[in-house]
Amino acid sequence: MTDKLSHVDDSGEARMVDVSAKAESARTARATGAIRMRPETLDAIVKAQIKKGDVLGVARIAGVMAAKKTADLIPLCHPLALTHVAVELTPDAALPGVRAEATVSTLGRTGVEMEALTAVSVALLTVYDMAKAVDRGMELSDISLAQKSGGVGGEYSRLDGIRSAPYHEPGSTKPY
Fold this sequence. Notes:
Number of strands: 5
Strand content: 25-35%
């Protein structure tokens, strides 16, 4: 791993990375996150009793739309032709709240981690927006990259499969 930041030029200025020399490859990223809420809020969402409508359905579509607009939101992010976006929202009484997972794929020169993270973030923000009239204390948490594949960086997976954990390059004791 290099210690040089790819989005900073030799004079220290922020720049978009030139990926034109990179080979295209199949790339996939999966991100996860959660929103915690009062049990009665979760119950109202599950029973479709929120006045704004189908919270999980609208949030799912918002997540897909957000993945497609990531380059408009993140200044140095490349616009990508996405080949697949899936957003899953799962009620979880143990939180209590909703767990989100987004999987994004492309065939391109740069990865889709930002698109997956953006999809999860916006899906959870949409849950908050739609249910805030009954619970302003909801809390977004644990938004992180779960897995990625493709490109020069190859495979990545969180160590514990649930929360972010320090990544160690193979053969190295230096944290990522």
